[in-house]
Amino acid sequence: MGKFKKTLAEREQILAYKLLFPSFLIMLLIAAYPLFNVFYTSFTNKRFASTVKTKVIGLKNYQKLLSVTIKKLENENQSSREVLPKKPIRYKELKRFNIGNTHYVIGASDPDFLISVGNTIYFTLWSVLLELIIGLIIALVVNSNFKGKGPMRAIMLVPWAVITVVSARIWEWMFKANRTGLFNTVISNLGLGDGQASFLTDQALQLPAIIAVDVWKTAPFMALLLLAGLQTIPTSLYEAARVDGAGPIRQFFSITLPLLKPTIAVALIFRTLDALRAFDVFQVLLADRRYSMASYNYTQLIKYKNMGMASAIGVIIFIIIFGFAIGYIKFLGVDAND
Amino acid sequence: MINKETKKFLNKLLLYILVIFIAFYMLFPFWWAVVSSFKNEAQLQMVPATFLPRDPVTNKIFFDLKNYRSIFNDGTFLRGLLNSTIVATSVTLLALAVGSFSAFALGKLRFKGKNASLYIILAMTMFPQVTVLTGLYAVINALRLPAMASMILSYMLFTLPFTTWVLTSFFKELPVELMQSAQVDGATPFQSFKYILLPLTAPALVTTGLLAFIAAWNEYLFALTFTSIEPSARTIPVAIALFTGAVSRQEPFGEIMAAAVIVTIPIIILVLYFQKRIVAGLTAGAVKG
């Protein structure tokens, strides 16, 4: 009996490897070299589409991207150029702050990159949170019984079905800074403003605007995944809960939410990964006015031809994404072995 | 104290209000695209914007079909639709097939290196597309693949991890007893996968398939790169992005909106067709038995 069990386990293991083989073959074919290439290039000064000879320069790209320093200012109005070091790398002002009456300036050798990291993380946290809430509400509504739920399930996917680049253009068109745009027309019709709000150039409105676009666009993705998760919860559990006298809110927190956790975890991971790599929306709507990590990466590669630098940005994005993914996996407990 | 009937009625009312609210939220930008697609240049520039296409002079409702005529007269648009259909369908089928194999192994079988495999598959999709583009281009060139095949393979970078992870979580949810009882009946693990577990995940397969299909249908950057020397293989996002206005240097917003409407319709039909499968509720019965 013991021997039989062991061979069964062995056979299971072999079957598992056989089943994983196609995935790993595809990965080896298309992912291995490009990913290795990114790591290697990030340590060089390689130029994009150029004949200049490539040299290995070690960690210089990373140093350029990540160097930060804090200096004391003599007074509030002092120019940061007087205090920030210029050698071996030049620092530019990132932000000022004060503790008590002492003023400080934070300098960075590439403030645009650090700002893009901040933009992306702010964008990611807000859009994923809002998508989760809206997606969950939509999934719960669509999962309940009512007339016309078939068409409703198609309607709910429309935003996700509109091509990303095109949906960014639709919103760009709605965001127009005068009353040819939908929002400004509505705002002025309601008497809430002068109809001149420039959503895409006003610093304070840029990120909220882009979060609104992304939430609209991808809440359906979340909703559909969560709907599929809701489907796997046996209805008998709800019947039992009802017999025990549990109300809908109690049912939601003690049945729906715990059983939906694995689906929520997977949906969160993929949405967060996507949001941290957000490119299309930023590039189309804000271009050079405000960067996400990925659109800054694109700018470095295409506009400045700094391929080494762009690769280093790619690696940093990878590390940030990896950190988020591990955090989620540990926090939500979706490891394979449980 | 409200009686049961009123309470039921109020619940129903609340539900319908929510439904209408959600439908409005999901549709208003698309509705704006539809309205804009029926406007010509003069109508698009009217201040304030009109909620239905109107004639700038008489202010009467007037739908201009010129944008639709011009995209259908443009061969690249229809060609793009066909290309996108081929690419997205192949990507979906390949990712589902390969992904469900892996997901079964990761969700239901015991073997060494399980967590590592799960993470390696996920790590594939952690780099921004721009960064892997040059390396990927080199690989595609070395393999001498035509543009269509290049797109199908390279889209695996984001569809394969997604389908594998989602399906893994669904396979894990299926009760172990199902597989055990099949094995007692003499089925090999692969047979119990093929005949018992796979059909039970049909709703999950359709859901992930749809999401993967749309992601592939949407992809722009890889498509732009890989079709640069083979314009006949251009997919729909690339074709739309390369629209040039009839009037030079003017952005053809009306045409872009018309194209957006046309390419969204097939997806809506697809969803309507599959929506019953998405919510087949097959597993609910299986868990009990």
From TrEMBL, chain A:
<feature type="transmembrane region" description="Helical">
    <location>
        <begin position="121"/>
        <end position="142"/>
    </location>
</feature>
<protein>
    <submittedName>
        <fullName>Trehalose/maltose transport system permease protein</fullName>
    </submittedName>
</protein>
<feature type="transmembrane region" description="Helical">
    <location>
        <begin position="154"/>
        <end position="171"/>
    </location>
</feature>
<feature type="transmembrane region" description="Helical">
    <location>
        <begin position="20"/>
        <end position="40"/>
    </location>
</feature>
<feature type="transmembrane region" description="Helical">
    <location>
        <begin position="307"/>
        <end position="329"/>
    </location>
</feature>
<dbReference type="InterPro" id="IPR000515">
    <property type="entry name" value="MetI-like"/>
</dbReference>
<keyword id="KW-1003">Cell membrane</keyword>
<dbReference type="GO" id="GO:0005886">
    <property type="term" value="C:plasma membrane"/>
</dbReference>
<feature type="domain" description="ABC transmembrane type-1">
    <location>
        <begin position="117"/>
        <end position="328"/>
    </location>
</feature>
<keyword id="KW-0813">Transport</keyword>
<dbReference type="InterPro" id="IPR035906">
    <property type="entry name" value="MetI-like_sf"/>
</dbReference>
<comment type="similarity">
    <text>Belongs to the binding-protein-dependent transport system permease family.</text>
</comment>
<keyword id="KW-0472">Membrane</keyword>
<dbReference type="InterPro" id="IPR051393">
    <property type="entry name" value="ABC_transporter_permease"/>
</dbReference>
<dbReference type="Pfam" id="PF00528">
    <property type="entry name" value="BPD_transp_1"/>
</dbReference>
<dbReference type="GO" id="GO:0055085">
    <property type="term" value="P:transmembrane transport"/>
</dbReference>
<keyword id="KW-1133">Transmembrane helix</keyword>
<keyword id="KW-0812">Transmembrane</keyword>
